[in-house]
C-alpha cells in the first residue's frame, strides 16, 4: 500500500504542491527516489536512513520507492528530506497515514534527526493554506510560516518530536508569528547641507515612485542623499510586506521569522553580473531588482555598470515584473521598485571645474553619460544635477527639513493615491497609472496642457516621456494637496525631465 504526504517545489515566488508517495514492496532491498530529483534530493535517502537509525528505527529489508509527483517537475533543494521521512514512516505503519496525508512538510534532516531550517517556509505556508492542509517545518522556520494565519504551523525541533506529535504522545503547539520589525532610520535629510533641488526630487520620487537620476561631481552628496530615501518612505502595507517577505524567504533573508515593515533598500556594486541584478543562476533565483520589490534599488556609479546589465532594466522598469527564462527554468518575479541612480558627469568627474577637468573635456562627458542609452534614459522620470558644496557651507548650522517632516508629506500623498486607485488593485501609486486612467486622473488644466504641448514640440518628447511628465505632475499636485493638475505642477515636472540629457 502507498503512503502519501505533501511538500512543495518552488517556481519563482510560487510554491507548487508536490505529492510524496512511498511504496514498500517485496524484492531486493533498495531505497530509490524518483520524480526528477536533483543531487540534493537524491541524497535525501542517505540522510533519512541515518536519521531513522539514530532513532533506533530499522528499515525493512524490502524495496522502498519514493515518487515525487508530478514527475516532470524538477525537484531541487534539501527541504524534501522531512516529507520523504514522513511518507516512509507512514508506509511502515509507525505514523498514522491519515494524519500524514493531511500535511505539507518541508525541512532538512541532519544525521542525528535534528531538523535544519530551509528557505521558502512562507510561500510553502501559503500553498498549504490553499490546499487546507497543516504545515510541518523546522522550529526555526515556524515564526516565518505562521504569518499565514489560514493554516496551523507545526514547528518541530527534531524527528523525534514529529513522531511524538503524530502519535499523540506529545502534541506540538502551533507556532506563533515572528515580530514585526520597524527598522529606525538612522540617517536624516537634515544632515545634508544645501542641495534643496535634489531633496525636492527625492520627495517627489518617494511620493509617486518615480525613477531618479542624480548627476554630479564626486563628493557632491549623491550617495548621501540616496541613503536617506528609506527615512522618507512610508512603511510597507500588510499586503506589500507579505509580497516582499515571500521573495526574501526564497532568498533566506528573513531573520528569525520576523517580517520588516521597512521598505527594502538594495545597493549592488557596479561589478554585479546580469544574473545578480535581474535574477538567474542555478535554479533561476531572484535578483536585486526583485529583492528591491516595493522598495528602492540604488545603483551608484550608474554608467560603470556593464551596458548589457543596464539594458536589461528597460523591461522590468516598464512592466514591474521580470521573467527569468533559462533552458531548465522559466520563472516570473515581481519587481516594482524605485530606481535611484547616481553618476559622475564624466570619467574624471570634474566636467564643470576647469581647474580640475581632464584634457578631453567636453568629449569625455558625452562619452561617459553616453553609456546610458536613450531608451533607458527615457524611462527615468526625474533627472537632477547635484552641484558640489563649498567647504565653507559645511560649517553652517542645520537649516533644512528633517526626514520626519518630508516623510509626513510623502505619506499624505501616498494616502491620496491609495484612495484614488482603490478600485484598481494592481495600481498603487501614480507611476503605475496608464491609458485612460492616467488621462482621467492627471489631465492638466488648459494652461498646463498648452505648456506641455509646447515642451513636447520643442524638445521632442516621446509618448512615454509625455505620459511620465503627466505622472510626475500628478504626484507634485498630490504633494501640494491639489485635486487638479495645474500649470506650475506641469512646469516643475518638465524641469526635472530636461535637466540631464542622454549622451550629453
Estimate the mean pLDDT confidence: 91
Q: Tell me, briefly, the overall form.
A: elongated
Instruction: Return the CATH class of the domain at 2-166.
Output: Alpha Beta
Spatial arrangement of strands, main beta sheet: 13-16-19-11-20
Total helices: the number is 21
Largest β sheet strand count, sense and barrel closure: 5 strands, parallel
Which percent range describes the beta-strand content? 15-25%
CATH third-tier fold name of the domain at 2-166: Ribosomal Protein S5, domain 2
Query: Architecture of the domain at 2-166, CATH level 2?
Result: 2-Layer Sandwich
Counted beta strands: 20
Query: Which structural class best describes the helix and strand composition?
Result: alpha/beta
Cα separation of the termini: 73 Å
Spans of at least 5 consecutive residues whose pLDDT stays below 50 are none
Radius of gyration: 27 Å
Q: Your description of this structure?
A:
This protein has 504 residues and is of the alpha/beta class. It has a domain at 2-166: Ribosomal Protein S5, domain 2 (2-Layer Sandwich). The chain is 37% helix and 18% strand. It has 21 helices and 20 strands. The strands form seven sheets. Strands 13-16-19-11-20 form a five-stranded parallel sheet. The chain has a four-stranded mixed sheet with strand order 1-2-4-3. The mean pLDDT is 91.
How would you summarize what this structure contains?
The protein is of the alpha/beta class.
Labels describing this entry:
Ribosomal Protein S5, domain 2; alpha/beta; 504 residues; elongated
Task: Give the secondary structure arrangement, pairings included.
Elements: E1 2-11, E2 14-25, E3 30-34, H1 39-42, H2 44-54, E4 63-69, H3 81-91, H4 97-101, E5 103-105, E6 108-109, E7 115-116, H5 121-130, E8 134-138, H6 142-145, E9 153-156, H7 159-166, E10 180-181, H8 196-208, E11 212-215, H9 222-226, H10 238-250, E12 259-260, E13 265-266, H11 274-278, E14 279-280, E15 285-286, H12 288-291, E16 296-299, H13 307-311, H14 314-319, E17 321-326, E18 329-334, E19 338-343, H15 363-369, H16 374-378, E20 382-385, H17 403-420, H18 435-442, H19 446-459, H20 463-479, H21 487-497
Parallel strand pairs: 3-4, 5-8, 8-9, 10-12, 11-19, 11-20, 13-16, 16-19
Antiparallel strand pairs: 1-2, 2-4, 6-7, 14-15, 17-18
Helix pairs in contact: 2-3, 8-17, 8-20, 19-21, 20-21
